[in-house]
Amino acid sequence: MSNSAANKAASLARHFETELVHGGTLRSQFAETSEALFLTQGHVYDSAEQCEKRFLGEDAGFIYARFSNPTVAMFEKRMALLEGAEAARATATGMAAVTAALMGLVKAGDHVVAAQALFGSCRYVVEEHLPRYGVESTLVNGTDLDAWRKAVRPNTKVFFLESPANPTLEVIDIEAVAKIAKSCGAKLIVDNVFATPLWQKPLALGADCVTYSATKHIDGQGRCLGGVILASEEFITTHVHTLLRQTGPAMSPFNAWVLLKGMETLSLRIERQTRTAATLADWLAGQKKVTKLIFPGRKDHPQAEIIARQMGGPSTLIALEVAGGKAAAFRFLNALKIFRISNNLGDAKSLAVHPATTTHQRFTPEVRASMGVGDGLVRLSVGLEHPDDLIADLEAALALV
Ligand SMILES: *Cc1c(COP(=O)(O)O)cnc(C)c1O
Question: pTM, whole model, 2 decimals?
C-alpha cells in the first residue's frame, strides 16, 4: 500500500500530511497559530442552569479534564482523521489504551484470543490480569490462521494482536484474522504501535479498534507518555466512553500538546527513519556475526507477501540476532556509541535494547522462545541520524562481539 493508498484507505478528504499539521485544530478567540495548551482541570459556567445542561449532555462544551479537555480533544480529532476512525479517546499511556479497550469489551465468563507475540505488558493484561476477573484467554501463534479458528469458543468476545509484533517484527494477516473474528461475533483490536499510522490502517483491513502508544513514534522525541483508542462512534460509546470517564486514565493536556507538535513532523520522521532502517537492515544482513535479521521491508521476511499487501511501508525497527547468545548481545550493546541502550522506540535518537532481559524478562526462557525472543536477540529502533554514522557504529560494535 503506497502512501496515497493509505490516504484512500483512511478516506481522508485532505491528505495525511495536511491533517498531521492541521487536523482537529481548535482556535481560541486569540486566533493563535500554534495549538493552544489549555492547562486547566475544569471550566466555568455562565449559570447553574448551563452547568446542569452541560452535565446532562444538552449543552456542548467541556466539563472536567478527566472527561475531556480542548488540547486533548485536538489530539483525539487529529488522530481520528489520520486513522480514518469516527472517534478517538486519548489515554495517559499506551497500556491504558490497551487495557481500557480490552476491559471495555469483556465481562466475567467471556473469552479472549490473542497472538502470543506481544509486548510484555500487553501479554500481562491478557494472560494474567483479565483472568483475575473471570475472563479466560488463549494465546495463539498469530501467523497461523487455523490456530485463531481453533481457539474460538462460544463465549469468545475479543481478538487482540500486534503487527508487526514487539520485538520479533512478526506480521499477522489482519484482514484474514478480522474475517475470522467477524464470523464468530468477536471484536478485533489491533495494537498498531510498530506500524505507525503512516504505514498501516487496521480499520480499513477490518479491525474494529486500533490502539497506539503515542509515547513512541507519535511523540517521536522521547518526551512524554500517551495513548489513544480509535474506533467507530458506536464502539467508543458502547465500550470505552464511560469506562474511561469513570476510571480516569486521562491524558494530560500538556502531553496532548507535545504530541500534537510531534504529529506535525510524523510523516517526515517515519519516512526518513524507515528509509534509514532499510539501509541498515541490508547492511546487517551481509554481516557474518549477524545470524538472523528480521526487517519487514526485506524480501526474506517470513511474511513478506502479507506485508506487501497490508502495509504502506515497513518499519523503523530491526530485530537481529548475534552469534553467542546473551554475552555476545551485551558486548554488542555495550560497544555501541550512537545507538544508546534504551527500551523506548520510535525516537529521533537511535536506540537498542536486549528484549530477553528487559521488555520480555518476566517470561520463562521457554515462553520467550515461543515468542521468538532468543538470548541473542537485539532490537534496534532507528532514529534520524545519518545512516553512514549508524553503520559505522554498528560495524565497530559487531567487531567486538
Ligand atoms: C510501548 C508499547 C505499548 C505500551 O505503551 P506505553 O505508552 O509505554 O504504555 C503497547 N504496545 C506496544 C506494541 C508498545 O510498543
Answer: 0.95
